[in-house]
């Protein structure tokens, strides 16, 4: 009987200690099973973690260093990621080079042709992008009557005057670099998406 009571007491004590050890406090998450599965290890591409003890509490590394010490000290400029090879130029998914025409080079821009076919899908996606990025100023129908356009004034009416005859390359160029009150949108809208907006403007807005 006494042996049974002792086993029962030890079991309760063990369970209590186990539950207590799982309590988190401060920087300690408590006792965990398979810690590396619960806590993702961040990889900082633009900076290096030079403290070899960072993440020691999480580490299961054989070299005894902290789990967060994942930097490559051989890379230059204190960065973990490698720099691109010299004289290389990034291309997009379709193999297109970055757009590099000067903001004032409207003459060359006018000769550009879209690499995308103006099919129904492209135009439909262009409509969604136009409503998202352009309609606030130019209005849903392109008449320069968007809510922001009405306040700012001087917003182009894409359905009238010389705007109707603008080449698609010119429109793409203006979306990229901006003009007048319109600010550049190259950082917000990818090249392919800009061309989709152009197709929607030319095929739908300017045919109304």
Structural class: mainly alpha
CATH class of the largest domain: Mainly Alpha
SSE order: HHHHHHHH
Overall geometric form: elongated
The CATH architecture category of the largest domain equals: Orthogonal Bundle
CATH fold assignment of the largest domain:
Cytochrome Bc1 Complex, Chain D, domain 2
Tell me the number of helical segments per DSSP (H or I, 4 or more residues long): 8
Percentage of residues in helical conformation: 25-40%
Sum up the structure in keywords.
2 domains, 208 residues, elongated, Cytochrome Bc1 Complex, Chain D, domain 2, mainly alpha, 8 helices, single chain
Provide a compact summary of the structure.
This protein has 208 residues and is mainly α.
Would you give an account of this structure?
The protein is an all-alpha fold and 208 residues long. It folds into two domains: 32-82, no CATH class; 106-207, Orthogonal Bundle (Cytochrome Bc1 Complex, Chain D, domain 2), CATH 1.10.760. It contains eight helices and no strands. The chain has helices at 2-21, 35-38, 106-109, 120-133, 135-138, 147-152, 168-177, 191-203. α4 (120-133) packs across α8 and α7 (168-177) crosses α8 (191-203). The protein is elongated, with a radius of gyration of 30 Å. The model has no long low-confidence stretch (mean pLDDT 83).
